[in-house]
Amino acid sequence: MLVNRYRFRSVWLVDCVPAVAFEVLSDLGSYPLWWPEVRRAVRVDDRCAELYCRSLLPYELVFRARHNTKDAERGLLVADLVGDLDGTVGWRIEADGGGARLVYEQVVTVRKPLLRKVAVVARPALVANHELMMRHGKRGLRTYLAGFHAGRRVGDGSL
Prior knowledge:
159 residues; 35% helix; alpha+beta; globular; Alpha-D-Glucose-1,6-Bisphosphate, Chain A, domain 4
């Protein structure tokens, strides 16, 4: 196992139809609106953003995420990451009862020099930090989607 290589998988259940989840997740520039650890997103173009992430540990990760797959019909989003993290991240969005099931998968190699130097001893802390970030992201997305729905109902005149 390479100490600087990480593989993560999370499953989130959210209260919205898959098409709405796809719309929100495909907008990389909106991530700071709902994911607290994504501190800033700078849009490069319609498929790419530079993301600045920081969680509990005292370091920031900066990388570009560029969609290589953006397929609403299949509910599939995949982005290549380049920068402090190199690899891929993806969402699989499926119907689940009246809501959506979001499967997040990430395979990355850490390129940030400081984190590479401390990889052997810091790995458990980095994994725990990622898990915390994912919990906050899930909670933030659920809250954001609730407001997203409410705003659409108001905008549609259905309230």
